[in-house]
Amino acid sequence: MTAAASSDADLISAHAAGDPYAFSELVKRHRDRMWAVALRTLRDPEEAADALQEAFISAFRAASSFRAESQVTTWLHRIVVNACLDRMRRRQTRPTVPLPEAGPGEPVAPRDAMSDRETSLMVQQALMELPEEQRAPIVLVDIEGYSVAETAQLLGIAEGTVKSRCARGRAKLAKVLGHLRNRIADANVPADGVNVQEQRQWEGR
Amino acid sequence: MTGMERVPMGPPWSVDLIADLHAGVLPPEVAAQLRPRVEADAEASEVLRALDATLEDLHSLPPVPMPDHVAARIDAALAAEARPGIAPVVSLSDARRRRNRRLGMGGGVLVAAAAAFGIVLAVSPGAQQPPANDAAPAPTSKQSEAPPLALKRDELGSAVGEVLGAQNYGPLETPDRLTGCLKGGGITSSGTPLGISPIDLEGRSAVMAILPAGLGKYRLVVLDPATCGPDRQEGVLADTTVGQR
């Protein structure tokens, strides 16, 4: 099999048929994106590496039962996200290890200018301040570019919940990043004519 | 959806409500009526712009490539999973637990055998004997509590499953010392080895390091801690690559 010319689905089939190189090729194709998701979700590079290793091994074993109803990347992402969520649940009582200032694996050289680098560090820092239930959908939808429907499927929650968690997370980030003036951000009171319960019903929780 | 949802009165509107509008949380008919009113209000528009700017920040985060050492570790774990005869590595903690258990059990069996039969270790008849080195200093610290894995030269590959994931420098003590010893053998290696552990090579105290050698391959380097160094090639007792062709 010419790995470079094969589709992801071909690689999965080849793996199931016993091709010893097919799965490694699949991992090679997607590992950067999976690493970004794991790192940004878990924040701790060691935990991210452990979660990814666990996820890839688990995918390796389950690949023969993969059915082509979903895309390979979605399937792989789901396994990675689940591995991360498992770790997040397990460590809830433990303090998290903050990312070093530059962030592990972050490009050493800034893409354009120092200001780009500073902005990206600020955003990384701000993401850390979000509760995990908001950070995961923000990472998938706003950073990795998954649709709300795909994210709902990946996280196993309703689409409305994905939207409302993204909404809450973005509002917090807007404040932390200084896009929202404090006066506005602090005046965060329910509007006249609508009660909180009605608003919560819209959130689909 | 009843179609009877009330449109929130305002201004002012809460930031959360505007964020819901921005994220598409509100029912479409409510959003359709609310949006023009929000956009007509200076303060609410400012919140929308702030949310847009936040999204732009998130979209423009640079990609985060997987560090080489993580990629090598995952390649090694997958290769171990694919190779028959090598126990798959499920997680680092499992690997650590398994390794410790096996090193302890294997060593115990060997010590028991040695005591019972009055021998040290079996040495393959054709194997090259390392030169005697009576002056070699005993390892000074960080010796493994369990006796090291005993190996012959022609069975180094069988130790991959045991050593992979181990980070026991034994008598080499430090990563710098390992780098120096590898350099002596003309081997350039950056970063942490995929595994390193003291072994007993045909009766001689040694250290095995597993280095990445491409997808699904491992370079197994066995060093003599007593003689290896940056300028001493003879400190490399074995250097072989195993794994997928």
Would you write up a description of this structure?
- Chain B: It comes from Lentzea albidocapillata subsp. violacea.
- Chain B: Residues 128-148 are annotated as: Disordered.
- Chain B: This is Anti-sigma-M factor RsmA.
- Chain B: Residues 128-139 have a biased composition (Low complexity).
- Chain B: Keywords: Membrane, Transmembrane, Transmembrane helix.
- With 205 residues, chain A is mainly alpha-helical.
- Chain A has two domains: 1-94, Rna Polymerase Sigma Factor, Chain: A (Orthogonal Bundle); 115-205, Arc Repressor Mutant, subunit A.
- In chain A, 64% of the residues lie in helices and 0% in strands.
- Chain A is elongated.
- Chain B is α+β, with helices and mostly antiparallel strands.
- Chain B is built from seven helices and five strands; from the N terminus they run H-H-H-H-H-E-H-H-E-E-E-E.
- In chain B, a hairpin with a 2-residue loop joins strand 2 and strand 3.
- In chain B, helix 1 packs across helix 3.
- The radius of gyration of chain B is 30 Å and the shape is rod-shaped.
- Mean pLDDT of chain B is 73; it is low at 85-144.
- Classes of the chains: A mainly alpha (205), B alpha+beta (245).
- The interface between A and B is large, with 70 and 60 residues.
Pick out its properties.
heterodimer; A: about 200 residues; mainly alpha; Rna Polymerase Sigma Factor, Chain: A; Arc Repressor Mutant, subunit A; about 0% strand; B: about 240 residues; alpha+beta; 2 domains; 5-stranded mixed beta sheet; 7 helices; about 40% helix
The fraction of residues in strands of chain A falls at: under 5%
Shape of chain B: rod-shaped
Helix tally of chain A equals: 10
Order of helices and strands of chain A: HHHHHHHHHH
**Helical percentage of chain B:** 25-40%
Highest-level CATH class of the largest domain in chain A: Mainly Alpha
Q: Residue share in helices of chain A?
A: 55-70%
Mean pLDDT of chain A: 76
Separation of the first and last Cα atoms of chain A? 47 Å
Number of strands of chain A: 0
Terminus-to-terminus distance of chain B: 61 Å
Instruction: Report on the biggest sheet of chain A.
Output: none
Tell me the greatest interface: A-B, 70 and 60 residues
* Largest sheet, spatial ordering of strands of chain B: 1-2-3-4-5
Rg of chain B, Å, rounded: 30 Å
The fraction of residues in strands of chain B falls at 5-15%
The CATH architecture term of the largest domain in chain A is Orthogonal Bundle
Keywords (chain B): Membrane, Transmembrane, Transmembrane helix
Protein name (chain B): Anti-sigma-M factor RsmA
Organism (chain B): Lentzea albidocapillata subsp. violacea
Keywords (chain A): DNA-binding, Sigma factor, Transcription, Transcription regulation
